[in-house]
């Protein structure tokens, strides 16, 4: 198959996939918005009324993405999981470093819990997004 | 820490060539990044203002400079190069960026947060507090672009370039992401420079 027609076929297949990437970006934006709210309050106790909707929506979108991912057929799952495991290692380590800084700076109670939940969302969301993206392009290989 | 990312493609691409020939980034960089991470944590726990300031300034300055240089110098030059030369440059440049940039970003954020806390700039009563919040907003925008838009494209392009016959259309489509976002990233980096110099001269 010529490369151009293979790529066109790939583009058509890509357009049929669910909007996992867009949902992951939205989730990431919510996490970052929550981070900005935190920064505007610290070192005072952050208002949970303001922060919980962002965190809940971010996790909600991550769960939606997991649901959409589980329904994919003909997807390069091997590639997805190989990339995912390394990225999880990277981002969980990064999140652990940030968590250490937060704890080291005496964050306690609800603030610590919410920051931990946000860092966990960060550490799960980005690997999912990148792994899905790589797997998507690997799925589009011409046979 | 972040160098583990260098091994992401190992599993994907293993099976061709020598021991490390299929690694996107040579594993020798892993200890270098681990040392960098250890130095970051050492600077924080030392509670020495100089060490934290050094970490933040060195990593932050490198991050800003590399970002602006890539977006406004290397990017346009690459755009005028013949496609095979562009691919060769990308094949060598992107693995370096894959390791370098996350390391610089983590160092900048860890150092910056610690420095803001030590200098009292995190306190809402501090006159520097609005600048700190503005800096967090700028970093949030840059993080969204780097992690959610550019990183997936970077990895796919890297893997594509390692194929015997890279699919030019896919590489071309994904490279457009770098072009479209370079303006926003450039504006955010200039905003960072303004905010940081303002912060440094407030007291």
Largest sheet: number of strands, sense, barrel closure of chain B: none
End-to-end gap of chain A: 9 Å
Find the count of extended strands of chain A (DSSP E, 2+ residues).
0
Please state the structural category of chain A. Answer: mainly alpha
Q: Give the amount of beta strand of chain A, in percent.
A: under 5%
Q: Show unreliable segments of chain A.
A: none
Order of helices and strands of chain B: HHHHHH
Tally of DSSP β-strands of chain B: 0
Proportion of β residues of chain B?
A: under 5%
Helix count of chain B? 6
Principal-axes shape call of chain A: elongated
- Give the helix proportion of chain B (percent range): over 70%
Largest sheet of chain A: none
Question: Could you describe the 3D structure shown?
Answer:
Chain A is mainly alpha-helical and 143 residues long. Helix content of chain A is 83%, strand content 0%. Chain A has 5 helices and no strands. The termini of chain A are close together. In chain B, helix 4 packs antiparallel against helix 5 (129-161). Chain B is built from 6 helices and no strands. Chain B is mainly α and 203 residues long. Residues 1-17 of chain B have low confidence and may be disordered. Chains A and B meet through helix 1, helix 2, helix 4 and helix 5 of A and helix 1, helix 2, helix 4, helix 5 and helix 6 of B.
